[in-house]
Task: structure prediction
Amino acid sequence: MAAIAEVVSTYHRVPLPVVLSDSRHGTIEAFELCLVRVVDADGAEGTGYTVTVGRNGRAIMATLAEIAEIVDGADADLIEALWTRIWWALHYGGRGGPTVFAMSAFDMALWDLKARRVNLPLWRLLGGYDPAVPCYAGGVDLDFTLDALLAQTDRNLERGFRAIKMKVGRPRLSEDVARVAAMREHLGPDFPLMADANMAWTADVAIRAARALEPSRLVWLEEPTIPDDYAGHARVIAEGGVPVASGENLRTIRDFRALITAGGVSYPEPDVTNCGGITPFMKIAHLAEAFNLPVTSHGAHDVTVHLLAALPNRSFLEVHGFGLERYIDEPLQVRDGVATAPERPGHGIAFDRDALAKLG
Result:
């Protein structure tokens, strides 16, 4: 039995080197990083984390303190049992929001601990499929000028990316169409290009946008409308004629079941930092497989590369704009459009805690 001896959480507000923006969250100058470390009675430890776009981090930290009380002395190897215990202990006052963010970080730490104890990289512990995962650069660039957008694209190409995602959702649809067309011309006819609306539109507007963007041959249009509008998502696919990626704002496997069975998603897109952690992420991916759907990801690429490396129905890994490269020892490397899951035990992320501590 690997009894949980200690759960330690820390909060950090991480400034972004470049101010980012999208259609719903507005201007983003910093993100919040909530780190949790689980130590067992043998002294082994695992680390997990979640992030926000600048708000609610303190609420997540308060929930992590409650989780520490709930699991004190429990067997860290019984991840399913602990996940269920926490879910129902916090369900009445939680069931989403900061609760599921906190659960995500804690669950990630448990999986990291388990993999470290058996000296396996996480992707192998999860079943193992292929460590070489296709990836794309996820730009948070709605308010960039076109010149800045294309310059960012060229830098991403130099870094080894062979797929790109850009933001749409400007006040005028014509501006979105022109920017996507310019990106398509810049990248060439067959280069994988995605566009992310960040829930900017109603279903009717999203259908109009999808039709207008069709000549640019997008791999997918992401979050064309609010996440709860399953019927609207289905209409965008059926009437807009473009594949849809969605799910970064869904919080449970049941949310994904509802979206998938409604016919509202072509690429289910869970985020391991806000869907409840690695435990439900893998269940969501297997649910997608049962419907013959490829799964993609949102955020936390240094961890998520392990999850997609364990899945036969994975598509693209998003390498996110909220990267932790400045604060970890060995950031994820991209070569010729592929990110490779490391062979280090656990998820392999070693945080520079001294540098983070200076942030407050």
Notes: The mean pLDDT is 96. The first strand starts at residue 4 and ends at 22.
